[in-house]
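Progress against Task 2.4 (sequence-to-structure conversion) is shown through the following example record, which the project officer requested during the mid-term review.
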Amino acid sequence: MVPEQLGEWVLTELPRLNQAILRENAPPALLLDELREHVLSGLPDVAQLTPVQAQQLVVLTGFVGASVARHYQEHTPGGKEHPEFAFGPLTVGGAQIPFRAYFAALAVHTGTGHYTRDSYASLVRWNVGTVRVGLGGETVAEIPGVFDDGRIRSYTGSGGEESFFLLVKQGEAVELAVNELLGPLTRDRASLICADARHRVRTATALLARLRQLFLDFAALPPDQAMPPEHFMDVFRQFAAHWTVDDIPPSGALDPEALKRDFLLGLAVDHYDHLARRLFPAMLDHERAVLSELMDGPTLPQRLLDEIGSSEQELRLSDDGDLRRLVAHHPALLDWYRLLAMHARVSGAHLMLSKKFLFKPQRMRDEAGLGDREIVSNRAGTTGMTETFLDRLTRARQNHSLAALRLVLPSEAPKQTTKEEEEPTQTGDNADGDPAAEVRSGRGAATPVVVELTG
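Structure tokens generated for the chain above:
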């Protein structure tokens, strides 16, 4: 079977088999039989592939591996304790290479440093087609996929799974646009209060508002267009089963652009850098390099306060009069404040999604005595982040470096606010101009932010 045939099999036959097994209309052994007899034996030698073909096969065999791992652990007593046994019957090609060894060779051949199991990069970035972010008719960020068929691979073929993968990649593309705007401000001697810096910050704020709206729009979709919590918890998440006992399953926590933004803007949470480094094995080489560099440098708010001769502690100890005079003397503080406030609101919207689709439904199950799933717990994210920890992260983003300015800035009630982002962070009219209305609608300088899937 050539990779093109495998691609069609993963798009059609694998979802059909997964659905049949989940509904108990077929035994898990049927999937293994299909793979041995009709799929894996025909896969090419890794050395014959281009790096892009290797990326494609990482995506496709990643879905295969996730399916095999899930069904084995659900139907085999003690299977969760030895998840690697699921792949024992599977070999690839005429040389009968063990499945996990073949996958690891594919990962190396991509030249990206991809993990030895399915990951965020393969499931989201490589799987979904090219996503572009446009501003004023100009493309400001683009994340390509590795397929040109315009289709999104998923576990069961449901529209909700495809919509979720698309949402996550669209979000990453917007985050990339934000980070590309802010990145140049980390250079030595770059001013953070000049006209160019203020324009970058305002545009980044508008982009973050668009990201937040993506989350709110997804949450508002009817179940038949999005993904019901039951499907998210009992079907979708359970395919993030371990391939080995202590590996790192795919997770939104591995989104490198979100992590970059936290290190650019600052997050006062002890050992947050240690948390990010713990996820490094499941990231790509260039992601690890960029994040390591950001971790070792000062945050942008720290550099901003250094430039104006102040500090976070000084802000918190200043009275209203001192703060007002500081803002009047450095109006760029308003732009930076709005950016940090919108960063916090994005975090609140993301937390709202986590509560809506995961934590609240599981809490209801616990209260009803229904318990938890055995393969992938619904009481925490797949990388172990609990609701309490995510609450803490959101509060830390709300309590940002410029939070003291909140006391002296006019406030306005946002038109649409989730419970998780409730805090008086929105600013109103001022002599320097107010982009708040533009920001809330996802516009910067009256220019729409467009996020589109192109293929």
